[in-house]
């Protein structure tokens, strides 16, 4: 027997054994708890909703508190000129249009400056023919208060017109020398008081129209347009005018020391000219009569304010700022226009009431009010 025939059978390779697969792994079982997942998502939604509501509530509370204590009513500070990086500011207060009320945009500018510790001086930019006695005096009072409380200089820059009540508020500069500037084409002066009165009695008589008003006393209708002003009533009104006129002259003496001569009159000593007749003056005549200090533009007034604030700094080292009214949602949506008719009617009724004016006109103004605001938006 050959060796090959004597080999054991187990030595021969078994293809079936070599091709056998390994034992299969046990399958992975994933168990989902759908109830717990929904609860978790719901609680997350509730939590985020509560957070958002709380944040909104806090923001609303903060905004309401800010509005409550914001006396400037959200007016915006705007860069005007000179150094953009300077910390020290010179603020421009704008007085433009007829002064019917003092507690408006002008007062809000004053409040904004009072709260700003970086304001080193103020330039009062005046372009107004004046307005009511009360409104002009209110602005004058708060300008003087601002200057004294903050201990900062106040310089006046007159635009096209600074007459009557406009000249009145310019006197807030006090005793500081060289602080009232007028442009070469400025009209100023008009120191006086007026109560407009119109007599339509002849017209009514011609058309057989009678005023049948019932009043508690005949003097209640002294300045009625439907009747002639008799001499007794005219004397009463004149006495009232004279009191306001005397105060006007006292205020002029506060701002122009040259007229403090112990009398009630405002007289140019060199020429003997009475300056309190209601006459308007050009800038050149106002300079001659010492009603103003210098003829110059806004930049000249700013330079003077800078020199008074800090003579060691160049005028260009200050940041000049001015103030703008905030954009109203009513104006954006056009709702303000819808309110105009009613507000103008109210304004006309107010103007029909007899008032004393520091105003360069014989007619009540019907177009604009304090700070370039249309009547009804004051």
Concise synopsis of the structure shown:
The protein has helices at 3-6, 15-18, 34-69, 105-114, 133-150, 165-170, 201-206, 231-255, 283-288, 298-309, 329-333, 335-352, and strands at 76-82, 89-96, 119-128, 130-132, 154-163, 180-182, 187-189, 280-282, 294-295, 319-324, 357-359, 368-369, 373-374. With 378 residues, it is an alpha/beta fold.
Structural notes for this entry:
By secondary structure, the chain is α/β, with parallel strands linked by helices. The protein has a domain of 209 residues: 2-enoyl-CoA Hydratase, Chain A, domain 1 (Alpha-Beta Complex). Helices cover 40% and strands 16% of the residues. It contains 12 helices and 13 strands. The strands form 3 sheets. Strands 1, 2, 3, 5, 6, 7, 8, 9 and 10 form a 9-stranded mixed sheet that branches. A two-stranded antiparallel ribbon has the order 4-11. A two-stranded antiparallel sheet has the order 12-13. The longest helix is centred in the first third of the chain and has 36 residues. It is flat, with a radius of gyration of 40 Å.
């Amino acid at each position: 027997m050959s060796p090959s025939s004597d080999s054991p059978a187990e030595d021969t390779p078994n293809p079936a054994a070599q091709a056998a697969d390994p034992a299969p792994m046990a399958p992975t079982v994933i168990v989902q708890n759908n109830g717990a997942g929904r609860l978790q998502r719901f609680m997350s939604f509730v939590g985020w909703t509560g957070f958002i509501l709380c944040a909104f509530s806090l923001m609303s509370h903060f905004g309401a508190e800010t509005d409550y204590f914001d006396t400037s009513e959200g007016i915006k500070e705007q860069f005007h000129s000179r150094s953009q990086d300077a910390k020290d500011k010179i603020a421009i207060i704008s007085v433009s249009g007829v002064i019917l009320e003092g507690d408006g945009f002008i007062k809000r500018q004053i409040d904004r400056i009072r709260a700003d510790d970086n304001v080193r001086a103020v330039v009062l930019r005046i372009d107004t023919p004046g307005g009511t006695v009360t409104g002009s005096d209110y602005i004058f009072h708060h300008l003087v208060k601002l200057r004294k409380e903050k201990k900062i200089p106040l310089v006046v820059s007159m635009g096209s017109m600074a007459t009557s009540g406009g000249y009145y508020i310019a006197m807030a500069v006090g005793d500081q020398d060289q602080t009232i500037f007028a442009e070469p084409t400025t009209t100023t002066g008009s120191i006086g008081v007026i109560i407009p009165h119109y007599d339509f009695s002849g017209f009514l008589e011609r058309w057989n129209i009678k005023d049948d008003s019932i009043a508690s006393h005949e003097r209640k209708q002294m300045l009625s347009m439907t009747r002639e002003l008799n001499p007794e009533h005219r004397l009463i009104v004149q006495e009232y005018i004279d009191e306001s006129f005397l105060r006007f002259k006292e205020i002029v003496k506060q701002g122009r020391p040259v007229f403090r001569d112990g009398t009630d009159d405002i007289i140019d000593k060199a020429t003997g000219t009475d300056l309190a007749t209601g006459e308007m003056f050009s800038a050149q005549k106002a300079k001659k009569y010492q009603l103003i200090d210098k003829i110059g533009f806004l930049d000249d007034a700013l330079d003077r304010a800078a020199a008074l604030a800090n003579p060691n700094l160049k005028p260009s080292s200050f940041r000049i700022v001015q103030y703008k009214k905030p954009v109203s949602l009513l104006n954006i949506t056009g709702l303000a226009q819808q309110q105009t008719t009613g507000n103008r009617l109210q304004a006309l009724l107010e103007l029909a009431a007899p008032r004393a004016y520091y105003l360069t006109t014989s007619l009540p103004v019907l177009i604009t009010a304090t700070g370039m605001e249309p009547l009804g938006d004051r």
